[in-house]
Amino acid sequence: MNINQEQLTIFKTVMTLGSFSAAARALGKVPSAISMSIANLEVDLNLQLFERVGREPKPTPQALILFEKTQALLIEMNQWKQHAYALSEGLESSLNIVVVSELLHTQWTEYIALLEQQFPALQINIISAPQEDALKMLFNQSVQLAFMFEREVLENSEQFVEVKREQLLPVISNQHPLAEFDQVSFEQIRQHRQIVVASRDKSIKPELLFSKDYWRTDNHHSASMIILENLAWGVLPFQMFEENPLLKEKLKVLKLSDFTPKFEYYVDLVWSRESQLGAAARFLINHIRNQRISVK
């Protein structure tokens, strides 16, 4: 059996338009070529696809069954060819992206949707991790791209483009002793337990750590639950706080009297200079660069 895409396309067109002559006009062929192709397909399949009675061929029950599968198969074949062409042009076989835990509630998915539109056959793998672990993944090349907060010190192999600005909020349960105060001092927050989102590697000191007594978690979902249980205060993304009615109702934003911590951060798309980036990764980097130029 040697069935090709042209035969399937002719079969689909005949089934859709209802006649050999209409299919010939649509495909730019003579009717005899359409008739010959269908006859060869019937021989290859050892099936009668059309009853040739009257002016127009009538599909057999077998043809009706195969028609639905033919449409799906042609779509897959076209996707396969597009993917093969994209790979020949440098598209990566898959794209691994890490999103730091603090950013899971921001609008990062719009960039994934853009990649899907541009490269529909590309496999995209999304990973969540604390900032320190995300950097490790970049440098050991287990991921190609990372959405993360700005870093105070840049590694030599690190490249980035700024995406947007995000805000974090120091919050406490309404039932916590600190919630009684309009403002709290640095010494007050130091004396109360803090829940921090930090690397799974306990040798790495957490960022945004202020309290002497602290617990660690690797994501903001568990951090928010700890805070709601009145077990600690912590720092949560503004958007998470705004979009979750439970958090907004049961948590209070702490006002710090002694200092103004840097709770407003720029979000970067980061990659390693040592990685060989494929077409999809380069497309996203250039898209964000162009966005910044158009805003300016």
Automatic annotation (TrEMBL):
Pfam families for the chain: HTH_1 (PF00126), LysR_substrate (PF03466)
GO MF terms, alphabetically ordered: DNA-binding transcription factor activity; transcription cis-regulatory region binding
Signal sequence bounds: none
Gene3D superfamilies: 3.40.190.290, Winged helix-like DNA-binding domain superfamily/Winged helix DNA-binding domain
Keyword Cell membrane: no
SUPFAM superfamilies per the UniProt record, alphabetical: Periplasmic binding protein-like II (SSF53850), Winged helix' DNA-binding domain (SSF46785)
Domain of life of the source: Bacteria
Entry keywords, A to Z: DNA-binding, Transcription, Transcription regulation
Domain called HTH lysR-type: residue spans: 1-60
Entry's transmembrane regions: none
Database matches in InterPro entries: LysR_HTH_N (IPR000847), LysR_subst-bd (IPR005119), WH-like_DNA-bd_sf (IPR036388), WH_DNA-bd_sf (IPR036390)
Family: Belongs to the LysR transcriptional regulatory family.
Name of the protein this chain belongs to: LysR family transcriptional regulator
Species in which this protein is naturally found: Acinetobacter lanii
Upper classification of the organism: Bacteria, Pseudomonadati, Pseudomonadota, Gammaproteobacteria, Moraxellales
